[in-house]
Specification:
11 helices; NAD(P)-bd_dom_sf; 13% strand; 8 strands; alpha/beta; 291 residues; eight-stranded mixed sheet; binds acetoacetyl-coenzyme A; globular
């Protein structure tokens, strides 16, 4: 059934699922920009950590004069944490930012479809999984869309918007306007594995791993070469640690499977690091040691 999705001027309340780095950053952007926010995670400890991350990030922005204490105080009042989907009953849009698992995301979309109001837009922050397939488990595929923020969401200027096969113009327009309200520039991608950014970024990161794996250069020289040689803020191996090696591996598998080209096959060294629990900054060790 086609319903009328929430229009941008009617979006006052947002639900964010997943209180990791991305979910916390998205919740922060929404609260600062005047929305009532419900941040949901099944783990109360993650919610506590996310609240601290958001408070720290807001203070960093305040210390640079980018936010006033009054804006911060109002934002924190609008931010609510919950472990129950029932609190999403008034949400005009829900953005999920849980782990990159198609099964987990589909299960969540089934639940969101049942518990949110019929006009709500259901958005996914997925970095590579098909929006069309996520939409297919709901009764509202025209209101399902990809809204892909870059890490860290409060700082990075881009949001990639992905239309599934049935995403309506109204859903696209409301989502684009919301991203712009967050101060982001929008690029629009068709729904093919990896969209724009990861389709191009992940082969570079993978190639950096192959360069290390085949002994062409040290990790420091690979990173310095790309950082200073192509003016990137981080070298590709350092960036992989920042994103999470498990996340990079999972995106490469989606690219490899979805686009069917061997050029996306993950480097064995990347897979081995993940097998060893070396996931990057979040686990204390990845390509580099942060302990
Ligand atoms: N909140 C508020 N401010 C923050 C912040 C946060 N979460 N993170 C960083 N900052 C601010 C710092 O306060 C600092 O401000 P000043 O320069 O004014 O002092 C500034 O950002 C730079 O931070 P740092 O000095 O701590 O460190 P840095 O100079 O190395 O910058 C970085 C950090 C912004 C992350 C930068 O290294 C960078 O841009 N790296 C590349 C990030 C990137 O490519 N992200 C996209 C990854 S791909 C992706 O996300 C898609 C996917 O699906 C995998």
């Amino acid at each position: 059934m086609i319903r009328n999705p929430a229009k941008m001027d009617e979006i006052t309340t947002i639900g964010v699922v997943g209180a990791g780095q991305m979910g916390a950053g998205i919740a922060q952007l929404a609260a600062v920009n005047g929305l009532n926010v419900w941040l949901l995670d099944s783990d109360p400890n993650s919610l506590t950590r996310a609240t601290k991350t958001i408070a720290n990030s807001l203070q960093r922005l305040a210390s640079k004069g980018q936010l006033s204490q009054a804006v911060i105080s109002d934002a924190l009042k609008r931010l609510h944490c919950t472990t129950s989907l029932k609190d999403f009953h008034s949400a005009d849009i829900v953005i999920e930012a849980i782990a990159e698992s198609e099964v987990a995301k589909k299960n969540l979309f089934v639940e969101l479809d049942k518990t949110t109001k019929s006009s709500a837009i259901l958005a996914s922050n997925t970095s590579s999984i098909s929006i069309t397939r996520l939409a297919s488990v709901t009764s509202r595929p025209s209101q399902v869309i990809g809204m892909h923020f870059m890490n860290p969401p409060p700082i990075m200027k881009l949001v990639e918007i992905i239309r599934g096969a049935d995403t309506s113009d109204e859903t696209f327009s409301a989502t684009k306007t919301l991203a712009e309200r967050f101060g982001k520039t929008v690029v629009c991608s068709k729904d093919y594995s990896g969209f724009i950014v990861n389709r191009i970024l992940m082969p570079m990161i993978n190639e950096a791993f192959f360069t290390l794996y085949t002994g062409v250069a040290t990790k420091e020289d690979i990173d310095a070469g790309m950082k200073l040689g192509t003016n990137q803020p981080m070298g590709p191996l350092e960036l992989a640690d920042f994103i999470g090696l498990d996340v990079c591996l999972s995106i490469l598998k989606v690219l490899h499977g979805g686009l069917g080209d061997v050029k996306y096959a993950p480097c064995p060294l990347l897979a081995q690091y993940v097998d060893a629990g070396r996931l990057g900054r979040k686990s204390g060790v990845g390509v580099y040691d942060y302990r």
